[in-house]
Amino acid sequence: MRLAKRVWMLCVCFVCVHCGLMAQKKGTETGVSDKTRVLIILDCSNSMWDKWQSDSKIKVTQTVLLKFLDSISHQNEIDVALRVFGHLNKNSYATRLEVPFENDNIYKLRSKIKTLVPQGGCEAASALSSSLNDFPAAGKSRNIILIITDGMDDCEGTICEVAKQVQNSGVIVKTFVLGIGDRENFQSNINCAGKFIHVPQEEQYTQSLYDIFTLSEEKAAVRVQVKDFSGMSYETSMPIVFYDAQTGVAKHQMIYSPAGKEGDDIITIDPLVSYNIKAYTNPPMLKTNISFDYNKTNNLVYEVEQGFLNVSYEAKRTTYQVPEYPIVVCKHGEKDIVNIQKINEKVPYQAGSYDIVILSTPHIELNDVAIQHVSNTDLAIPTPGAANIVKPKAIMQGTLFGIDGDDWKYVCNLDSGKVSERILLMPGEYVVVLKPVNAASNGPTKVQKFRIDAGLTTTVQIK
Question: Can you give the pLDDT at residue 189?
Fold first, then answer.
């Protein structure tokens, strides 16, 4: 029963993945939104009054942000919102969304930034935790968080734990931390909160902002090539899925096809994300924690060493239809199912050793079957024979066993509602045990042995 359940679940999963992936066109962009939303989380703790170079950190920040907002005010594909912490009163560690995401909010952003007065303490963890509710749920967008701060050593809360929860939420694509001032004001593990960019000099401030916003808009082109170990193109189409390495969420999907007149498959993806990439060979091949540059066409190469498996019947003429038993294939010594194939179906697998179960009656188990690179592994199994089991007229309950030396192996139960049954069995020795349904628990049983030969019909008359 457990094996049947696993087979059923694998079939359902395969249908769902296959149907979803086939909806994507070859080499097309998938899952990258044209709308980018950037939430600026601004530090207004008391330390922002400290002198930097030309002025206090807050004054320099206000000047830089106002000029920057002017420069992006015409870019409709970018939305900006502002959350601030440490500005409400001297004893407050609170945070507040001051300007939400909405159309034409540049004037509101400018007005709020001009009037900010640092007063309170540093509560970056609380601000970051609250940020998830700042992004509109409706509409598809790339959500970016930009924290601007002069240091996090005095922050209450666990910024690293909060940052992990935010990133794992699936709402945020990337968090950046723009650290202004002396490097010694920042914890050595500041990267846990997001990608840390240090700004030691005022003249680097504006450029660093532009770099982050530019990166937030970029997309990366990835050329996918699947080859065998001789360098030849892999000739079998397959799904390839790009999973977010941090959250495990599937971000991009494609169907790889062998290179032809259209050239190699190229997919456009989000370069801000690190990926775990799974190519659905048999069994799947996984590349972990892969990042791509946005300023070039990246090459993603899989090397596949594969052979083919084909299972067929030995040639026998029969007077009945021979069933197409499912064939379950697992890696040798492992329980996870790699694939389920059919009789006379030639299927590619990565070179290696496999355990194979043919779901005949009874099952045939073949362990440690070698599949070699660029070769065919052809397995022939016996053609099943037919057993016509004829019971006495009394209603009988019974069980069929296969004989393996001195051991009896359970095969199936008989149908007590039928006087005769036809069962297709693999060649071998069998025994049937019958007992009247209304007999006492210790009443007499009928036992009869018989043999099944490949492709032949055997009548088993129970007397």
Answer: 63
Q: Cβ distance 353 to 370 under 8 Å?
A: yes
Residue holding tokens 């701060």?
149
Query: Where do the DSSP E strands lie in 181-321?
Result: 195-199, 220-227, 238-244, 250-256, 265-269, 275-279, 285-290, 297-303, 306-313
**Which residue in this structure is represented by tokens 């998830």?**
132
What letters, b where the CB count within 10 A reaches 16 and e where it falls short, cover 354-380?
A: bbbbbbbbbebeeeebebeeeeebeee
Q: What's the pLDDT at 55?
A: 93
CATH number of 349's domain: 2.60.40
Residues 65 and 209 in one domain: yes
How far apart CA 376 and CA 308 sit, in angstroms, is 5
> CA 250, CA 243: separation in Å to the nearest integer?
4
Residue 183 tokens read as 């490097």
Among residues 132, 165, 127, which one has the least CA distance to residue 45? 127
Q: How big is the chain, counted in residues?
A: 463
pLDDT at 339: 96
Using DSSP's 3-state secondary structure scheme, residue 370 falls into: strand
Closest CA to 394 of 342, 325, 446, 337: 446
Tell me, what's the pLDDT at 152? Answer: 65
Give the residue numbers spanning the domain of 408: 385-461
CA separation for the pair 63, 418 (Å, rounded): 91
Tokens of 260: 């032809």
Those residues with Cβ within 8 angstroms of residue 372's Cβ, 6 or more apart along the chain or in another chain = 307, 351
Residue 229 maps to a domain: yes
| Shared-domain flag, residues 363 and 425 | no
The pLDDT tens digits for 397-407 are: 899 999 999 99
pLDDT digits (tens, 9 = 90+) for 170-221: 888 889 999 998 887 777 667 778 888 999 999 899 999 988 888 877 889 9
SS3 of residue 96 by DSSP: strand
**Which residues of the chain fall below pLDDT 50?**
1-31, 153-154, 261
Residues 399 and 364 in one domain: no
Same-domain pairing of 400 and 342:
no
Q: Does residue 385 contact residue 364 with C-beta atoms inside 8 Å?
A: no
Q: Are residues 150 and 261 in the same domain?
A: no
